[in-house]
Task: inverse folding
């Protein structure tokens, strides 16, 4: 492979990995803190993309559309968390089934509202150019996605290491019962974390729009990839998710080049290998489910 | 002959060293009670001996066989058994079904596919015998959650005893019990056949002195002293920990 | 034989008779629908087995169903014998379940869910993309006919009786499996795996075994579906189908044998009914499902059991009253 193609592929892999990171980290944080395996996370991703599409088509411009989509999904997330999941903490089976039901429902809802055709969102005008580095033309949008992903990671790191909220969440992941004992408003924390995870997934979906396009089944595809990433990285650790999301993004992208039909299989084999060598994931602390 | 030898067990959780070079042993026909303040690491010790958690350093020998690397279920087949501090029963099942599961683990038909488990006569007989001995035969069709806490605690011991173990480890058998229940349980423990040696963690000093042949005191994850009940009762350091610094006896 | 045991056998016989007489009162369409219902019941039972009796939540069970269906379609191009094809489907379903089970079962609930979903999706993508072999999204037709040795079963009634007998057979088989030592021990592992290990059981192998049986049965159901539908597409290995099976098990009642078939019946009939009015039946089924999980507490079987318990205690009271009045009558009659 030529250097230029290689570099572009790496860029594509990294940007794809960043998108995966945005949804997978929401899943892993929600699981780590609330022990909720949120099957509906794929739905948040898809809805983020589809709502952005509609807003763009209402002539709203990419960025306002993205924000609206994030807000809508965040609201949906809060509603789901308060109404449906609220009484089910501790009953993991019920939670999983409920979020699964939501995935099932939303998938049909999307078909109903937006139909079954493949839709596209154009790259936002402000980023619709390429940066020349030597002979290679890097699409600015992809660079932006990577930059944004790094920003999110830095923000998460900062919040976790330096703020009180982060400390609370970290403590909660280690020992949930302690949270209540510390006088923390657990309900509020849970609702906020869930909402944040949902919003992040929606933003990821909106940003994925110009790259992946919008199609039925994207919710399940992204959910499966997120699950694989979370398993590889380790449940409950967003740092692990960051690393494994990038790895998976690269594997998927390069896999598409060399083995177009089997990239998913390669990812899967990689996950199996990781599981055999380190059952709780690359960075997992052996969090028991 | 030594049934159980525990040599130099050390265990740390991150920065905290929970157990430091703990050694003790258990002879045939013996009742050995472990006492120590809360948080001294006693249940962790049980977890290490039984194989529930891995230890950092140390060795466990059962009848001379090194079981340190063996998973828990293998240790059971070699004659070890344990109870848990918090009731660890089959909540949705009846007492009878609980015992069926306990007895079946060493039965030859535990891997069979064809006959219903409940139809094996020896299983029914073993269950009936034990239930009648421990006065729960009339309640055999009750679900676990219909039992009183004390009865559940007794069932907890029964499950561990069903395999007729050489070494039975009881983790705070009388915890949370009323005075009457404690007395009953003490009696049950005393009436256990001597073919089963006991390693017991207990807080209630009356129970401790009623059943112990030997006592080991654990403090801050280390063995302070091992000796006969009289030696322990009269030991200065022990008195300091229990009768000087804070009472051990359950309220 | 205990009385409850006798009652169960009588109920089973009654059920069997009703099932075998049903074609006489159903339209051809009804017969076909009920056949599909029986196939889905077997599929639901296979999932209900591993979830309710071994504590293995799988969100990707359609993987084995689809493998069974595609086995019949693919191998059926080279081999005619129905016996060989069905056995092959069962074997492949079982083998894949064994291989993945060995790896996945070690993990706890959350990981298991994720891994089964990932494996399901993986197979879906493979079958979808290998267009040359599988026909891809367009699917492939099943050219073989079901022939058990006395001529091809082409009519709706023939397929009906065959699927009905298969269901009854599977049901009876599972009844004895869950009562057997292996079944009871697996169930114990579901109720409290930690204690089972502390009692001396190597629960890993029991779970792998049950998972393999679940895969075999799902493959069997898939094979039947291939014959029934004469056509197989990636829909048969799509996660939506895994979801359907899950919904059936939950609606009917996990942890029982009669639950999954009831759930399958409710699902198939409801889906059929709703889809004649609107395309939005997944939406409606999904909402019903969520409502049931939130408020249903155990599915139809458990709700039915509680209803029965309430009714039984009411009946006892009125029975007592009429007895007393009869006594009074007798007393009056005796008095001079």
Result:
């Amino acid at each position: 492979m030529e250097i230029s193609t290689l570099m572009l592929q790496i860029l594509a892999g990294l940007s794809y990995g960043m998108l995966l990171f945005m949804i997978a980290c929401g899943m892993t944080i929600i699981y780590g803190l609330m022990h909720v395996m949120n099957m509906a996370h794929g739905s948040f991703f898809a809805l983020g993309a589809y709502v952005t599409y509609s807003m763009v088509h209402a002539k709203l411009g990419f960025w306002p559309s993205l924000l609206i989509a994030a807000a809508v999904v965040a609201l949906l997330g809060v509603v789901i968390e308060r109404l449906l999941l609220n009484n089910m903490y501790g009953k993991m089976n019920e939670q999983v089934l409920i979020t699964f039901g939501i995935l099932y429902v939303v998938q049909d809802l999307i078909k109903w509202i937006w139909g079954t055709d493949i839709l596209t969102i154009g790259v936002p005008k402000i980023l619709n150019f390429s940066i020349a580095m030597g002979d290679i033309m890097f699409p600015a949008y992809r660079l932006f996605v990577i930059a944004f992903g790094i920003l999110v990671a830095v923000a998460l790191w900062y919040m976790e290491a330096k703020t009180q909220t982060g400390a609370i969440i970290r403590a909660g992941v280690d020992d949930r019962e302690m949270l209540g004992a510390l006088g923390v408003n657990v309900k509020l924390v849970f609702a906020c974390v869930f909402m944040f995870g949902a919003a992040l997934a929606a933003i990821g979906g909106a940003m994925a729009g110009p790259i992946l396009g919008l199609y039925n089944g994207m919710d399940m595809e992204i959910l499966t990839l997120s699950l694989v990433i979370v398993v590889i990285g380790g449940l409950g650790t967003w740092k692990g998710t960051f690393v494994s999301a990038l790895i998976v993004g690269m594997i998927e992208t390069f896999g598409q080049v060399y083995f177009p039909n089997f990239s998913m299989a390669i990812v899967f084999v990689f996950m199996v290998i990781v599981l055999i060598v380190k059952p709780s994931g690359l960075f997992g602390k052996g969090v028991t489910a | 002959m030594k049934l159980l030898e525990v040599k130099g067990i050390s265990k740390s959780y991150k920065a905290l060293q929970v157990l430091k070079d703990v050694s003790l042993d258990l002879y045939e026909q013996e009742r050995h009670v472990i006492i120590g303040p809360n948080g001294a690491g006693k249940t962790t010790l049980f977890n290490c001996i039984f194989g529930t958690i891995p230890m950092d350093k140390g060795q466990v020998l059962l009848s001379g066989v090194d079981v340190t690397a063996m998973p828990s279920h293998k240790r059971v087949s070699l004659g070890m058994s344990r109870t848990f501090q918090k009731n660890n029963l089959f909540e949705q099942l009846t007492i009878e079904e609980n015992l069926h599961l306990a007895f079946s683990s060493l039965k030859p038909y535990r891997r069979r596919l064809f006959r219903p488990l409940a139809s094996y006569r020896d299983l029914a007989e073993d269950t009936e015998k034990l239930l009648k001995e421990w006065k729960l035969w009339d309640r055999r069709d009750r679900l676990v959650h219909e039992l009183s806490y004390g009865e559940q605690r007794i069932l907890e011991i029964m499950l561990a005893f069903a395999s007729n173990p050489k070494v039975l480890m009881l983790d705070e058998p009388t915890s949370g019990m009323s005075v009457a229940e404690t007395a009953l349980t003490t009696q049950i423990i005393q009436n256990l056949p001597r073919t089963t040696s006991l390693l017991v963690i207990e807080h209630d000093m009356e129970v401790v002195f009623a059943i112990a042949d030997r006592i080991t005191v654990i403090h801050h994850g280390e063995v302070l002293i091992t000796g006969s009940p009289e030696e322990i009762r009269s030991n200065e350091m022990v008195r300091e920990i229990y009768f000087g610094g804070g009472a051990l006896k359950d309220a | 034989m205990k009385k409850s045991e006798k009652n169960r056998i009588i109920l089973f016989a009654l059920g069997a008779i009703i099932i075998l007489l049903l074609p006489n009162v159903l339209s051809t369409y009804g017969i076909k629908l009920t056949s599909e219902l029986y196939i889905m019941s077997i599929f639901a039972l296979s999932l209900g087995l591993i979830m309710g009796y071994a504590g293995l939540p799988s969100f990707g069970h359609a993987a084995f169903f689809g493998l069974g269906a595609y086995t019949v379609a693919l191998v059926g191009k080279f081999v005619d014998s129905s016996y060989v094809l069905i056995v092959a489907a069962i074997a492949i379903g079982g083998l894949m379940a064994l291989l993945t089970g060995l790896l996945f079962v070690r993990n706890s609930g959350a990981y298991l869910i994720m891994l089964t979903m990932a494996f399901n999706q993986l197979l879906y993508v493979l079958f979808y993309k290998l267009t040359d072999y599988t026909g891809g999204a367009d699917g492939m037709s099943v050219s073989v006919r079901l022939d058990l040795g006395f001529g091809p079963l082409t009519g709706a009634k023939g397929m009906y009786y065959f699927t009905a007998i298969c269901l009854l057979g599977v049901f009876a088989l599972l009844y004895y499996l869950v009562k057997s030592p292996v079944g009871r021990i697996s169930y114990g592992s579901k109720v409290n795996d930690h204690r089972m290990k502390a009692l001396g059981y190597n629960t890993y192998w029991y779970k792998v075994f049950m998972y393999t049986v679940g895969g075999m049965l799902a493959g069997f159901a898939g094979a039947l579906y291939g014959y029934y539908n004469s056509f197989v597409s990636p829909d048969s290995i799509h996660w939506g189908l895994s979801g359907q099976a899950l919904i059936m098990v939950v609606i009917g009642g996990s942890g029982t044998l009669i639950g999954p078939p009831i759930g399958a019946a409710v699902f198939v009939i409801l889906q059929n009914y709703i889809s004649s009015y609107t395309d939005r039946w997944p939406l409606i089924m999904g909402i019903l499902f969520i409502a049931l999980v939130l408020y249903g507490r155990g599915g139809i079987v458990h709700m039915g059991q509680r209803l029965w318990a309430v009714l039984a205690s009411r009946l006892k009271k009125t029975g007592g009253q009429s007895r007393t009045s009869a006594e009074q009558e007798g007393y009056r009659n005796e008095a001079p």
